Amino acid sequence: MILGAGGHGKAVLDLLLTPGGSGRFEVVGLVDAVVRPPAAVLGRPVLGDEGLLPALRAAGVTDAAPAIGDNGARAAAGARLGALGFALPALVHPAAVVGRGAEIGAGAVVMARVTIGPEARIGPLALINTGAIVEHDCVVGEAAHVAPGAVLTGGVRVGAHAFVGAGAVVRPRVRIGAAALVGAGAAVVDDVPDGARVTGVPARAGG
Ligand SMILES: CC(C)(COP(=O)(O)OP(=O)(O)OC[C@H]1O[C@@H](n2cnc3c(N)ncnc32)[C@H](O)[C@@H]1OP(=O)(O)O)[C@@H](O)C(=O)NCCC(=O)NCCS
Question: Which residues form a coiled coil (predicted)?
Fold first, then answer.
């Protein structure tokens, strides 16, 4: 069961429907706060709103994917699903490359063409989006989002709920603080404080 029938929910469903990507999972459908016709995504039904979740669990649906792009909303959805007894599997696209000793937390999603280097650690509910590179020894915090094509070079640390925009590049061993935002295309050469927002080349506060 996928919670979230928007763009990210569609991408997670696409991952699960890709041969080799679904593994042990059969997709029952999606659930969303708002159900608008046509109530289907990629041919799978949008079953209803969150009120359905206890019945789905009782009916034997075991696993759920909180598929909401916003980091805070995804973390909250993960907590609600866990409290209802759903397992939150890590989902890794079959076209991703994951290095030796890398760890991927519960509920994290690793999209197509991602490369994760050896001994990198991806936190629970983190989203490593299409084509991103997370090099060796990086640590990506809980419910953080590394957007499409972003590059975290070796040993970068990304705090919980932080967002690294599409195509951004982060210099080795830089620390990006919790809930910080890095704009698309930025080159991050210095540490970014918790909650800060940086953009540009080199990245500076503001934007
Ligand atoms: C940085 C960002 C969050 C700013 O969004 P915003 O608050 O809506 O900002 P605005 O579009 O109003 O732009 C404000 C100013 O910042 C500039 N700006 C916006 N994004 C920028 C970026 N990524 N790099 C450099 N400058 C940027 C704008 O040109 C504008 O400058 P101006 O005031 O001189 O005209 C956003 O542009 C961004 O980069 N988001 C990441 C998108 C992404 O990667 N999504 C992935 C989804 S999977």
Answer: none
Cβ(154)–Cβ(172) below 8 Å:
yes
The mean pLDDT of 58-63, rounded to a whole number, is: 97
Ligand 1 geometric centre to CA of 90 (Å): 30
Alpha-carbon distance of 20 to 16, in angstroms, equals 8
The three-state secondary structure class of 41 is: strand
How far apart (Å, rounded) are the C-alpha atoms in residues 69 and 161? Answer: 11
What is the reported pLDDT for 22? 61
Query: Using one digit for the tens of pLDDT, what is the confidence trace for 12-42?
Result: 999 999 988 766 799 999 999 877 766 999 9
Given the residues 8, 93, 136, 161, the one annotated as active site: 136
93 a catalytic residue: no
Write out the DSSP string of 122-180: E-TT-EE-TT-EE-TT-EE-TT-EE-TT-EE-TT-EE-TT-EE-TT-EE-TT-EE-TT-
**Distance (Å) from CA 185 to ligand 1 centroid:** 10
Backbone angles phi, psi at 72, to 5 degrees: -65, -40
Residues 5, 46 contacting (CB under 8 angstroms): yes
The reply, when asked if residue 99 is annotated as ligand binding, is no
pLDDT in tens, 67-121: 999 999 999 999 999 999 999 999 999 999 999 999 999 999 999 999 999 999 9
